[in-house]
Amino acid sequence: MKSIKLAIAGVGNCASALVQGLSYYRDRPDDTVGLMHTDVGGYRISDLEVVAAFDVDRRKVGRSVAEAIFALPNNTTIFQREIQGATCEVQMAPVLDGVPEHMARYPESQAFRVADLPPVNVAKVLKDSGADVLICYLPVGSEQAARHYAEACLEAGVAMVNCIPVFIASNVEWAQRFRDKGVPIVGDDIKSQVGATIIHRTLARLMNDRGVKLERTYQLNTGGNTDFLNMLVEDRLKSKRISKTESVQSQLDVPLPADQIHIGPSDFVPFQKDNKVCFLRAEWAGFGDVPMNFEMRLSVEDSPNSAGVVVDAVRLAKLALDRGVGGPIESASAYLMKHPPKQLRDDEARASLERFIAGK
């Protein structure tokens, strides 16, 4: 079985957790904790190899990926200091709308600082590196930049895993372009393994299945990484709110009125670093129309929580490439992403995904 050659767009906290994880599990081939699948169509995590990377921050561009993942403003947990491979150089990406203006007002330790270098030709780098799959880890709201990478994937014939809420796999026109080119895409907007969205979806579905009426709910999130700093600007947050809200609404037989559901990031708390805290509340009517409610608090390390899902998405994208399947991989997208082309219940999505892996 060949290796899976990865390109990474955005060498931030999520990329750091992923690259650390590749070495962590290589050093521990029998460790299955934290993995949804040890094997996907014959591919194991040890088969993933980083061959190209793009960023705009002057502390990362020009350095090896193995070094850049530990550079500021990254602040996720370091669980694997010794990195095997990942020696390719981080190359200067086109900035486009990838860096919001307000970041300039924050300390260098917390925000992006753009390198004064010309951008590379992304499609050419993808071709020259032999990349199989590109992971899009750009900041939320990077609409132009994400589409630039999508265009490069189509030109280079490289599969795409779109981890952000820029709607590409779930957009009819973009989906058709990927089908026409025979290029797979898994998207949009990565779910965490056990995070706010998957828990909220599960509880919403549980209420429906148990015969009670969910009447209103909210999900508020805080964090201290660049993702939360980036999302302080409401204009960049619009697609994220849509993605997270629709993901929960899709689990209800009758969606809630728009003014009875509120889901989305709430504030940037620097000392939290890559720790994400979710406050979730739901109110429902039970037997005899008696009102009831619950409140919960969830605390997770944000980037490792998503990396456990991305390692599956990458292998599924490569499996589709091997099989000559282009366009959105619906089963993978439904199980792994918040805003897939087609929403399914999570148990249905998982069953569909296992059929895809088995080639059925």
Strand segment count: 11
Helix content: 25-40%
Query: Which of globular, elongated, flat, extended, rod-shaped describes the shape?
Result: globular
Low-pLDDT sequence parts: none
Stated plainly, the CATH topology of the largest domain is called: Rossmann fold
The biggest sheet amounts to: 7 strands, parallel
Q: Give the number of domains.
A: 2
Give the N-to-C terminal Cα separation.
20 Å
What percentage of the residues does DSSP assign to strands (E)? 15-25%
Rg (CA only): 20 Å
Strand order of the largest sheet: 3-2-1-4-5-6-11
H-E string: EHEHEHEHEHEHEHHEEEHEHH
Per-chain topology:
Blueprint: E1 4-9, H1 13-27, E2 48-55, H2 65-68, E3 90-92, H3 122-129, E4 133-136, H4 143-156, E5 159-162, H5 172-181, E6 184-186, H6 196-209, E7 213-223, H7 226-230, H8 234-249, E8 261-268, E9 275-285, E10 291-301, H9 302-323, E11 327-328, H10 330-336, H11 346-357
Parallel strand pairs: 1-2, 1-4, 2-3, 4-5, 5-6, 6-11, 7-8
Antiparallel strand pairs: 7-9, 9-10
Helix pairs in contact: 1-9, 3-4, 6-8, 10-11
Description:
It is built from eleven helices and eleven strands. The chain is an alpha/beta fold and 360 residues long. The strands form two sheets. It has a seven-stranded parallel beta sheet, with helices on both faces. Helix 1 packs across helix 9, helix 6 (196-209) packs parallel to helix 8 and helix 10 (330-336) crosses helix 11 (346-357). It is globular and about 65 Å long. The mean pLDDT is 97.
Descriptive terms for the model:
360 residues; alpha/beta; Rossmann fold; Dihydrodipicolinate Reductase, domain 2; 7-stranded parallel β-sheet; 4-stranded mixed β-sheet; 11 helices; 35% helix
